[in-house]
Amino acid sequence: MDETKNKPSEKMAKLDARIIYLAMFIALLIPILRPLGLPLPISDMTRKAYEYVDSLPSGSKVLLALHVSVGLWPEVEPGTIAILSHLFSKSIKVVIISWGADEPVLVESTLTKVDKMGKQYGVDWVNLGYYAGMETAMAAFAKDVHGLVKRDFYGTPIENLPIMKDIKSAKDFNLVIYDTASDIAPMIRQFVAAYGIPMVAFCTIGWVPSFMPYLTAGQIVGMVPGIRGGAEYELLIKRPGSGATTTDALSLGFILLIVLSILGNVIWYSRKIGMR
Amino acid sequence: MSIFKRREIPVIITAFSGFLMVIEYFFTIPLVASISTGIREWASLIAAFAVGLGATNLGIIHASRVRHRRENWYLSAWLLFVMVLMIIVGIFGTTKHPLYDFLFANVYSTVGPTMWGLLAFYLASASFRALRVRSLESLLLLISAILLMLLSAPIGGIIPGVTVVANWVQNVPNTAGMRGILLGTALGAIGLSIRTLLGYEKGYLPE
Amino acid sequence: MEFISALGLIVAVIFTFMIWSYLYKESFIFRIAEYTFIGMASGHAVVMAVGQITKTLGSAISVGQYIWVIPAILGLMIYTRYYKPTVWISRLPVALLVGVGTGLAMRGLIEAQFITQIISTIQPKETIDGIIIAILTMCTLTYFIFTWEPKGGSTRKAYNSILRIGRITIMVAMGAAFGVLATTRLTLCVSRLQFIVNSLSRLIAG
Predict the structure, then answer these.
(1) pLDDT in tens, B58-94
(2) What is the DSSP string of A166-183?
(3) Residue C162 has pLDDT above 90, yes or no
(4) Which chain B residue shows the shortest CA-CA distance from C4?
(5) Residues near C201 by Cβ (< 8 Å), separated by ≥ 6?
(6) What pLDDT, on a 0 to 100 scale, did the predictor assign at position B157?
(7) pLDDT for residue C147
(8) CA-only gyration radius of chain C, Å
(9) Which of A89, A135, A177, C53 is deepest in the core (most CB within 10 A)?
(10) Rounded mean pLDDT, B112-139
(11) What is the pLDDT of residue A248?
């Protein structure tokens, strides 16, 4: 009988993946049932985004462009709730447009969780719905809003919406907030490079490394990275929400991932030495 | 009619519309600006028509599976039923229809994130089986990954120095690496765009 | 709790477990959830696209802008691709879409992704980190040169060192990408688990 098969390292190496999945379930479930309550330091990129939005003068107009499919929405939703609450707490007009098909319906449900502070639909904010064509639609909107958009998401002609009277092109916006789970480059090309409109990215955290060159170059003025950014933004506007609890619950999952990668390497090395 | 069947016509349309966008950006010519603005708005509407291609392809493939009673044909029939149900309720009752709202909120919005989240479990398994430190490069990859994970959750903040180092990795070497890749892809994209507009690339045309 | 809300929660919890069943074994249960999602996703995309078409065309035609019929016809022409003898018709709208998209991307790309990035590299804001970024960016770019390499001993050695630094920089960036990818996926998992815990406690509480 081969003795090496009975070694702990050999047994561990052949560990059933389902045991790892179960360990992950438990690691994620524990902090949900018993929150760790760890303090969350606020990152520079989120602070910059918050400070820029906060410094917008009354009467400013902000475009909230969305491109996050249903699968990734839970990651950006807390940040979206926080930014909308922040915008509604000031006298800022908000125009929402979607470059993906899921977002108009998703944002509608998200808006039910936002305290609108008495702000009126059509006067202070509007949901323009979905426009196909990605970069083509972005460029068309930036150049001539009324040329592309004839009616809002609910079918009201935009001439009948007071908020849209002074918004003719990208130049009429003071800030673009891009809520995204895809590349930011098309929006930078069509809004920042073409019209010099400042932009803040609310992105899934997976895009942060790729967006760093744009942040360093000043093409985006701030970035709110995924669930962590959402939690930070909640703290900055002093309205703790679901972002903080979700971020807290990630901690044990990360520890498990780190332990697994170290353990995997230790087993690999011990097997390697054993073979020699 | 046969002249329109030639591939030169679509190539000319691509070149004309593409260069029109470029000229509009760099020169102030009112006529060009007005034509290109109109074409862009038209293109968005055409793109909306093109969205249906996905559903049409899916419909054709799954209808064929049902017709020929291929393996799991009843799943294809179910897919077609769900798709048609969504289309009928969504178009005639709008997305505000109670049935549409119910399906969107409780099925579509549930299955999507759960499917995306499945990868977390595979990442755990991959961390155990595949993240091997075979060289300096792979060691740095692992360290960088661990630091960024720790930066993403409050747990990183309680380990002294982790936030500072992780932020530096994200802001300096990561930015440099991503910028290098960005510049490389930008160069490639410029080359591909010029080739497309000049008619050297025709792969996008339906066969 | 309202009946519809409770039913919604039950359906959502069931579908979540149907997807998670894949972790144990690929099964018919998972397949049903998967096919349901694909059907809903494509159906929803059509609904939203039809919404844009009817809103745009309806508004334009109601004010006598009949010229909008042209892009509508062009849009319908795309569907001729399913019949071989008429495929050529679908090439015309596709050519327009590709031309407009390519032109728009190209014109902004030079400034947004090329010139600004180069300026930011050679005019760094924070001196030491900025210089490091500039050096590492150049090493990364050098790594992507596949058509030329220097001849001769010491030059080649120095060049290989640059390539190594470039490779290491890319690996660090890829590691960062892996780390944040894990975060995204874990977040989605946590959000689903939170949903399950909250839903079950709501259902139990009635």
Answers:
(1) 999 999 999 999 999 999 999 999 999 999 999 999 9
(2) T--SGGG-SEEEEEESS-
(3) yes
(4) B102
(5) none
(6) 84
(7) 86
(8) 28
(9) A177
(10) 92
(11) 87
* pLDDT of the residue at C55: 95
- Pull the structure tokens for residue C199: 């839903």
pLDDT level of residue A3 (50, 70, 90 thresholds) = low
**Which residue ranges make up each domain of chain C?**
124-206
* pLDDT for A170: 97
Question: What is the average pLDDT across B136-153?
Answer: 93
CA A47 to chain centre: 15
DSSP code per residue over A145-208:
HHHH-SB-TTS-BGGG-GGGTT--SGGG-SEEEEEESS-SHHHIIIIIIHH---EEEEE-GGGH
Count Cβ neighbours within 10 Å for each residue of A127-159 and write b for 16 or more, e otherwise: bbbbbbbbbbbbbbbbbbbebbbbbbbbeebbe
Cβ neighbours of C117 in A, within 8 Å? 213, 217
Question: If we measure between CA atoms, which residue out of A216, A250, A217 comes closest to residue A44?
Answer: A216
- Cβ contacts of C175 on chain B, cutoff 8 Å: 140-145, 148
Q: Which residue in the block uniquely carries the two structure tokens 């179910």? A: B78
Q: For strand A222-225 and strand A93-98, is the pairing parallel, antiparallel, or unpaired?
A: unpaired
Distance CA A190, CA A178 (A): 12
The complex scores an ipTM of 0.91
Q: List chain B residues with CB under 8 Å of C27.
A: none
When pLDDT is cut at 50, 70 and 90, the band that residue B207 belongs to is: confident
Contact assessment for residue A258 and residue B149, using Cβ atoms and an 8 Å cutoff: yes
Q: Which residues of B touch C166 (CB under 8 A)?
A: 180
- Interfacial B residues in 106-165 facing A (CB < 8 Å): 108-109, 112-113, 115-116, 120-121, 123-125, 127-133, 142, 145-146, 148-150, 152-155, 157-158, 163
Q: What is the rounded average pLDDT for all residues in chain A?
A: 93
Closest by Cα among A257, A74, A20 to C175: A257
Which element (helix H / strand E) includes A245?
helix A242-275
A270: exposed, middle or buried (Cβ count in 10 Å: 0-12, 13-18, 19+)? middle
Asked if the model's pLDDT at residue A1 lies above 50, the reply is no
- The identity of residue C49, as a single letter, is A
Position A13 pLDDT exceeds 90: no
> Can you give the pLDDT at residue C152?
77
A residues 153..192 contacting B (CB < 8 A):
none
Contact of A106 with chain B, judged by CB distance below 8 Å, is answered with yes
What are the residue ranges spanned by the domains of chain B? 7-81
pLDDT at residue A2 greater than cutoff 90 = no
Average pLDDT, stretch C176-187? Answer: 93
State the best of A25, A30, A48, A70 to mutate against chain B, taking most chain B CBs within 10 Å.
Answer: A70
- For residues A133 and C88, give the distance between their C-alpha atoms in angstroms, rounded to a whole number: 22
Q: Domain A44-240: which CATH class?
A: alpha beta
Alpha-carbon distance of B22 to C101, in angstroms, equals 11
Domain ranges of chain A: 3-34+248-275, 44-240
Residue with token string 């939703």 = A77
